[in-house]
């Protein structure tokens, strides 16, 4: 029997979120929830949906992996000439979304992205798996290619070319550091009366908590 999309639903009953228990610091609250997602064996707990906007105002999304939370900045790595890299070069505003289905939780973060230092990007690249380094060097990320065979041939050619040599980070590949300007923590609840708490930065460096309607 064919299932109608409109009939697919579930009740969220696994938790609740109150301002009595949530951390005053959104970064510490994020770390707590991320650790719980890892402990609960979520698939790809560090996966985050990254949204950028073109100069024409057109949004686009994709999923990348969080690779660090350093000095209250969220770090991910990419090809700077990719679609997101080119859009961020023109418009640095960005949003990140984490979705953890097993825990019935989401976190949404808005902020501003800037390129990481060469030192940060070099350090991360040096610790990548060998084949991932090769892939980063040969892939014209987001560009149209004729076939998968084309990219595989480029991969094999680069492997032979660099055999026995140190693989250096290409200049067009590196990290972005996102400085948040808003957090929203979302916990699924019964009857679609979800818990939503946002954090807004204050001039004194603290964060104001506010409950949002579901």
How large is the count of helical segments?
5
Strand content bin = 25-35%
Unreliable spans are none
CATH-level-4 superfamily name? Electron Transport, Fmn-binding Protein, Chain A
The number of E-state strands comes to 9
> Compute the gyration radius: what is it?
20 Å
For the largest beta-sheet, the strand count, sense and barrel status come to: 9 strands, antiparallel
The CATH class label is Mainly Beta
Examine the coordinates and then state which fold CATH places here, giving the name of the CATH topology. Answer: Pnp Oxidase, Chain A
Q: Quote the distance from N terminus to C terminus.
A: 33 Å
Cofactor: FMN
EC number: 1.4.3.5
Keywords: Flavoprotein, FMN, Oxidoreductase, Pyridoxine biosynthesis
Subunit structure: Homodimer.
Summarize this structure as a short list of keywords or feature phrases.
25% helix, 9 strands, 214 residues, Pnp Oxidase, Chain A, nine-stranded antiparallel sheet, alpha+beta, 5 helices
In short:
Residues 36-151 form the Pyridoxamine 5'-phosphate oxidase N-terminal domain. The protein is α+β, with helices and mostly antiparallel strands and 214 residues long.
Model description:
The chain is an alpha+beta fold and 214 residues long. It has a single domain, classed as Pnp Oxidase, Chain A, CATH 2.30.110. Helices cover 25% and strands 33% of the residues. The chain has five helices and nine strands. Strands 1, 2, 3, 4, 5, 6, 7, 8 and 9 form a nine-stranded antiparallel β-sheet that branches. The protein is globular and about 60 Å long. The mean pLDDT is 94. Its cofactor is FMN. Pathway: Cofactor metabolism; pyridoxal 5'-phosphate salvage; pyridoxal 5'-phosphate from pyridoxamine 5'-phosphate: step 1/1; Cofactor metabolism; pyridoxal 5'-phosphate salvage; pyridoxal 5'-phosphate from pyridoxine 5'-phosphate: step 1/1. InterPro entries: Pyridox_Oxase, Pyridox_Oxase_CS, Pyridox_Oxase_N, Pyridoxamine_oxidase_dimer_C, Split_barrel_FMN-bd. Residues 173-214 form the Pyridoxine 5'-phosphate oxidase dimerisation C-terminal domain.
């Amino acid at each position: 029997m064919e299932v109608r999309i409109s009939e697919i639903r579930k009740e969220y009953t696994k938790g609740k979120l109150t301002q009595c228990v949530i951390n005053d610091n959104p970064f510490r609250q994020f770390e707590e929830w991320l650790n719980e997602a890892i402990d609960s064996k979520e698939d790809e707990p560090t996966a985050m949906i990254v949204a950028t906007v073109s100069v024409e105002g057109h949004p686009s999304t994709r999923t990348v992996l969080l690779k660090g939370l350093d000095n209250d900045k969220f770090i991910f790595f990419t090809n700077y000439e990719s679609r997101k890299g080119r859009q961020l070069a023109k418009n640095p505003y960005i949003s990140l979304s984490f979705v953890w289905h097993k825990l019935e939780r989401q976190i949404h973060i808005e902020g501003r992205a800037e390129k990481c230092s060469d030192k940060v990007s070099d350090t991360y690249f040096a610790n990548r798996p060998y084949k991932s380094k090769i892939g980063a060097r040969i892939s014209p990320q987001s560009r149209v290619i004729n076939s998968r065979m084309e990219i595989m041939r480029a991969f094999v050619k680069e492997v032979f070319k660099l055999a026995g040599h140190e693989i250096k980070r290409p200049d067009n590949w590196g990290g972005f550091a996102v400085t948040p300007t808003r957090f929203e923590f979302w916990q699924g609840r019964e009857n679609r009366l979800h818990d939503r708490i946002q954090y807004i930065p204050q001039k004194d460096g603290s964060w104001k908590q506010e409950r949002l309607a579901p």
